[in-house]
Amino acid sequence: MHIAFGIAQLRFSIPLGPAYVAAALRRAGHRVSVFVFGRHPERAVAQLCGDPPDLVAYSVLSGEQSGYLGFHRRLRAALPVPSVWGGPHPTYFPEILSEEGVDAVCRGEAEEAMVEFVDRFAASGKLPTDVANFHVRGEAGEVIANPVRPLQSDLDQLAFPDRELFIAAHPLLRDHGIKHFLAHRGCPFKCMFCFNQAFHRLYDEKRPSYRMRSPQNVCAEIEEVQRTTRLEMVAFVDDTFTLNREWLQRFADIYPRRIGLPYSCNFRLDRCDREIADLLHASGCRLAYVGIESGNDDIRRRLLARKMSNELIVETIGLLQERGIRIITENMIGLPGETFEQACETLAINMQVRPTLGNCSIFTPYPDLPLTEYAIRGGFFDGNFDQLGNNYYHGSLMNFRSEKERRQVLNLRCFFSLLSRHPRLWGAVRPLLGMPPNALLRAIGDLLDGHYLSRCLPYRMTPARFARTLVQYLRLYRS
């Protein structure tokens, strides 16, 4: 059976979720292809009509759903092909099944579920209605909701993500020096702004969601990628890379000998001490993504459920910087009920630690998040998820105390990375924050972020590769 994965836009990274599912389907004997439709939907429709799939699959983030639905309706008018929808938005908003052209929704981790669904579709010629993880529209139009199956406990048994499918659709990905990997899945914490709260509810709070691959298996995947593509830096996109100390000790012994490349990872600052900082440095970590989220202690603890102090944040970032590890801090402003002065406290702690990049986003009320529900109850958000966009840097759906405060918060985001590195510019920048938000300020903010992000790389790009990357960045930014 031929399954075609639709992607709106491929940028600088391969989407690991669809790549894992594609690998599982190919291992099961099915044919899999990838098509990109964002900039030239008519070409994508012609491509599919020339080689019709038996099923199309989409992995959708919240904010992207309108574009995906619009394309699929266009495709459906030319080719009556059934569709399966997965990824974060359908997982936490399965009501998307009511939309025209959506035949089935796969919730949660999809490797085993998709293989069973496609196997049974191939055998019967009809979309099955009783496969775990799936919500399906029945013959009478009713919604049939099945429970999720247990999470895969042995991650080493999964096929490595099928990156070649996505590289064939977007050849720049082969030459890009950074590739993404997952060494762990799940997170035991329950931050109010994070999808993991909903993930825990989906899979039953009592069952552990945090699972680890063996360091040997992780290195085997990296070695496979090294043989076929350019690889200069490994980017681990796990939620909590340092949670298991014993695993990190084994990784620090194996990874430098087998791989030896610099890597980046994400972790919580309250899960890092001197020993872990030493292990990170010894194993090759040269860039750490760490969440500050808010510089206001009350907001961080009460509203975000991030129980760590400003003192711990400053001390732990200092430990990492002492070992030469570059830092990207993750921050949010425009939180429900947050004042401009409280947003400035988030800037202040970044000014104190001086990260390589102070990355700042604007809170976006994604479906099924506790903080979104808080925003709706408090009257800060009207609950209309159709308004969601796919960019959480350029606008806000929150209700602010005044239009002046909205302007200040949105414009503060544009200068956040600059001011985090150069606190002395605060006096010159502050008067600009009262201006009406506009495309020029947003472009300045994006370029500043891109500049500081380039300084996070632990390797140098040749002028030719930098030029190619810049051209691609500008094309994607324009689109």
Please estimate the helix content.
40-55%
How many strand segments?
Answer: 15
Q: Rg from C-alpha positions?
A: 23 Å
Which regions have little confidence, pLDDT < 50, spanning 5+ residues?
none
Mean pLDDT: 93
- SSE-based structural type: alpha/beta
Q: Note the beta-strand portion.
A: 5-15%
The CATH architecture name of the largest domain reads Alpha-Beta Horseshoe
Domain tally: 2
* Broad shape: globular
Q: Could you give the distance between the termini?
A: 33 Å
Question: What's the CATH class of the largest domain, please?
Answer: Alpha Beta
Strand order of the largest sheet: 2-1-3-4-5-6-7
Describe the main β-sheet briefly.
7 strands, mixed
**CATH domain topology of the largest domain:** pyruvate-formate lyase- activating enzyme
Number of helices: 19
For CATH, the homologous superfamily of the largest domain is named as tm_1862 like domain
Describe this structure in words.
With 479 residues, the chain is of the alpha/beta class. It folds into two domains: 2-145, Rossmann fold (3-Layer(aba) Sandwich); 176-478, tm_1862 like domain (pyruvate-formate lyase- activating enzyme, Alpha-Beta Horseshoe), CATH 3.80.30.20. The protein has 19 helices and 15 strands. α2 (41-50) crosses α3 (65-78) and α14 (340-353) runs parallel beside α16. The protein is globular. The relative contact order is 0.09.
